[in-house]
Fold:
Amino acid sequence: MSTARRSFRPGRVRILGTALLATTLLITGCGKDGGNSKAEAKSAARPALTVTVTTAQRADWPRTLTANGNVTAWQEAVIGAELSGLRVTDVLVNVGDSVKRGQPLASIATEGVLADLAQAKASVAEAEAALVEARANAERSKQLQAQGFISSQATIQVVTAEQTAAARLAAARARVQAEDVRLAQSRVVAPDDGVISARTATVGSLTTPNQEMFRLIRGGRLEWRAEVTASELQKLEPGMRATLTTASGTRIEGTVRAVAPSVDPATRNGLVYVDLPPGGARAGTFARGEFQLGSGAALTVPQSAVVLRDGFAYVFTVSTENKVMQSKVEVGRRVGDRIEILAGLPADGRLVESGAGFLSDGDVVRVVETPVAPVKAAEK
Structure:
């Protein structure tokens, strides 16, 4: 009986040990799986970011048309001497000077022209004396012919001499007029009021016809020549307002003077001529501007709610479960810190206002409600 007890106890111990080991492994495995599931669930429900939300609002915004172009002179006159071979003795103006019509711009040596004028006047005096003598001879010849002392042929010769003297006097007077014109042409004066934009005249140089000495912006008037497409050209008309922004950041108000009746066949663009007020811009500079086309309703959101990725604009809408969804939108005008949404915005959706740049589609967020201020109408 003691032997039977000794053989029975070891087997019972092995069975109990095996059962205990299996139970321990099962409990341990179940505990690990349950912990992983809870961790995954807890991780899945954890918000990725704390954000504020907003909604799109409608506002009355101005409709504008953006264009680029150059600032140029309204009309630029090229000034030079009309005579050749005259020496420049003094330059009286410089670039940037404002001048009046008829104001001398340069002094030119005119001694030669004055000498020719004096010679022509002397010829007139000589021709006048010769004419007086010829008229006296013609009168005396007519009296002698009437008394029968000379023939009619001799009288004709004397009268012809009188007419010849008169013709020589007219020619001498014409030469005086020609020299007066030459003297006037030797003066370099401003043809109109304006601003000197360029100067090539130098003291000591010789004048040459058709050679530029100065450039003058007539009236100091400048204009912006904006390039717009053929389809946009139809929206513009004279009298519309335009606002320019120069490279220095200066804003200038202008008025459309004319719209080109044709477009460039190479670029399919047309020119719009905008009159600019004096000052504030310089000829030859580039400027970007906007034409005011009126006003219209706009669906707007804060610019912080729009995210640019891969060249496209997106917004994030928040569902009732605080899960975000990425939506591609089309943007339009920008006024202040708000931007117009043209298409792609879900109706009456809550949009992520701050922190949208750190989100991905499907993220869970923690929402902090913020009061929505009404959008003011943009200034026109």
Residues 2-45 form the longest helix (44 residues). The radius of gyration is 49 Å. The helical segments are 2-45, 111-147, 152-185, 230-233. Residues 282 and 325 are 50 Å apart (CA to CA).
